[in-house]
């Protein structure tokens, strides 16, 4: 029996309809490809015509320039973003997303509480932000309204460097605010994080000096901040205890970047020698060197180290000559062996130094005798920081790895650091008895002929410091 065909089976009419659809589909694909080829040909023709027109215009311009002399202004050639029919041009401009400029906030957003101190480059006050209640330090930049130069370079450098720095041992800049009267350029304020103390005030009021473990903690934090600065190609150039802030939680931060600047490696051939407060100024600066490195900050670190141990500045010279005398008394007389090439420095040519051919102890360093309670590793670190030859001073990273910090007593934990009453909260302005950093426009001291030949007179009879000797019995 023949089976009945299914009503869903294809017949001849269905096959013809399917063939017709396939033919129409292929025709559409062919027309689309042909249209694409025509568009591509037109695009290439337009580009060729544009290049030819540009070449012809450049040729004509060159002929005109050669006839009329050099052009008064360089022609600006910039690729067009799109063609006439909306198609994107093959040339693209490389663009970067950038921030936008906004108006600085007003200083009236902060309520002034009291003055803290007056420094070489600004007045510092304690203030509270009205919206958050957070206590901050407001530093008003010292700007002479009669100076036509505008904002001084010291202020610009301080703002730029503080904005770029992000380290726990460097004071943070929150923002820059201005007074309501924006016509006065002197109303510019830096909003800095507030810390309760500066190291100078603490040392003046302490009944007893810091413990050895506390000195190590402070030095490690200072060296860590210096290492970050030097790795970022920044010289502070005014390190001293009054520029080191300390919180009630034992955190030390480097502040006051009015003398700081970026430097290259190798350093520029001519830098100003009028940097660093006199008592913390390296000998190469006193002798007129205009090319120096981060070693000047390391010398200042050594001076701070000694001040932490004695609670008073280590080298309190009255002027540049007296400062050099005190340096030579403590660190020894420079020779070609201890400081090669020092005689070539501008202010070293006229020095009259005592003879040291015998190599006696009288002409050498007395750091060991001045600090008899300091361990051998501590004396080694302090002596290297106060080396007359800047090439022999350690870097900040080398200080962090020094054996002195691995010996007992170990550095004290910051959480266990003692607290002190805050002078910054008192309603009075602190006046510094220490000298300020050099001001802009000052003249470099010409030391001229200086006689240091009698600097160690009579020293052969003095005591050599503490110590002991073993005797066999």
Task: Describe the structure in brief.
It contains 10 helices and 12 strands.
Structure overview:
GO terms for molecular function: ATP binding; cyclin-dependent protein serine/threonine kinase activity. The protein has 473 residues and is α+β, with helices and mostly antiparallel strands. It has 2 domains: 87 residues, 2-Layer Sandwich (Phosphorylase Kinase, domain 1); 248 residues, Transferase(Phosphotransferase) domain 1 (Transferase(Phosphotransferase), domain 1, Orthogonal Bundle). It contains 10 helices and 12 strands. The strands form 4 sheets. Strands 1-2-3-5-4 form a 5-stranded antiparallel sheet, with helices on one face. The chain has a 3-stranded antiparallel sheet with strand order 6-8-9. Strand 1 and strand 2 form a beta hairpin. Helix 4 runs antiparallel to helix 6 and helix 6 crosses helix 9. It is elongated and about 115 Å long. 30% of the residues are buried. The C terminus is likely disordered.
């Amino acid at each position: 029996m023949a089976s009945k065909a299914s009503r869903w089976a294809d017949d001849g009419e269905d096959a013809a309809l399917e063939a017709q659809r396939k033919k129409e589909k292929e025709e559409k694909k062919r027309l689309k490809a042909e249209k694409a080829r025509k568009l591509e040909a037109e695009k290439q023709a337009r580009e060729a015509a544009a290049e030819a027109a540009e070449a012809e215009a450049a040729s004509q311009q060159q002929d005109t320039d050669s006839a009329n002399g050099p052009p008064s202004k360089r022609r600006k050639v910039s690729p067009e973003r799109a063609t006439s029919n909306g198609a994107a041009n093959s040339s693209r401009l490389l663009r970067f997303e950038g921030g936008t400029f906004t108006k600085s906030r007003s200083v009236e957003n902060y309520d002034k509480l009291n003055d803290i101190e007056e420094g070489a480059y600004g007045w510092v006050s304690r203030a509270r932000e009205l919206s958050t209640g957070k206590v901050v330090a407001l530093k008003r930049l010292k700007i002479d309204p009669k100076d036509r130069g505008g904002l001084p370079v010291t202020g610009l450098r301080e703002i730029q460097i503080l904005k770029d720095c992000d380290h726990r041992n460097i004071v943070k800049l929150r923002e820059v605010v201005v007074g309501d009267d924006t016509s006065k350029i002197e109303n510019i304020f830096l909003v800095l994080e507030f810390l309760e103390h500066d190291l100078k005030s603490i040392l003046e009021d302490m009944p007893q000096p810091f413990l050895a473990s506390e000195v190590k903690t402070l030095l490690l934090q200072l060296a860590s901040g210096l290492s970050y600065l030097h790795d970022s190609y920044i010289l502070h150039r005014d390190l001293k205890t009054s520029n080191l802030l300390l919180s009630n939680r034992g955190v030390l931060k480097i502040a006051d970047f009015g003398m700081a600047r970026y430097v290259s490696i190798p350093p520029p051939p001519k830098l100003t020698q009028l940097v660093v407060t006199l008592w913390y100024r390296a000998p190469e600066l006193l002798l007129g060197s205009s090319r120096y490195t981060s070693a000047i900050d390391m010398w200042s670190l050594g001076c701070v180290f000694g001040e932490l141990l004695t609670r008073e500045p280590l080298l309190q010279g009255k002027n540049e000559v007296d400062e050099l005398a005190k340096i030579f008394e403590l660190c020894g007389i420079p020779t070609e062996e201890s400081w090669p090439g020092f005689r070539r420095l501008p202010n070293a040519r006229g020095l009259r130094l005592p003879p040291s051919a015998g190599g006696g102890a009288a002409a050498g360093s007395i750091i060991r005798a001045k600090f008899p309670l300091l361990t051998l590793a501590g004396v080694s670190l302090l002596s290297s920081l106060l080396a007359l030859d800047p090439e022999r001073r350690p870097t900040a990273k080398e200080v962090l790895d020094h054996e002195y910090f691995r010996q007992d007593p170990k550095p004290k934990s910051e959480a266990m650091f003692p607290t002190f009453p805050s002078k910054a909260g008192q309603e009075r302005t602190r006046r510094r008895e220490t000298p300020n950093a050099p001001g802009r426009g000052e003249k470099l001291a010409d030391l001229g002929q200086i006689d240091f030949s009698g600097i160690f007179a009579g020293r052969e009879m003095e005591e050599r410091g503490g110590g002991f000797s073993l005797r066999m019995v």
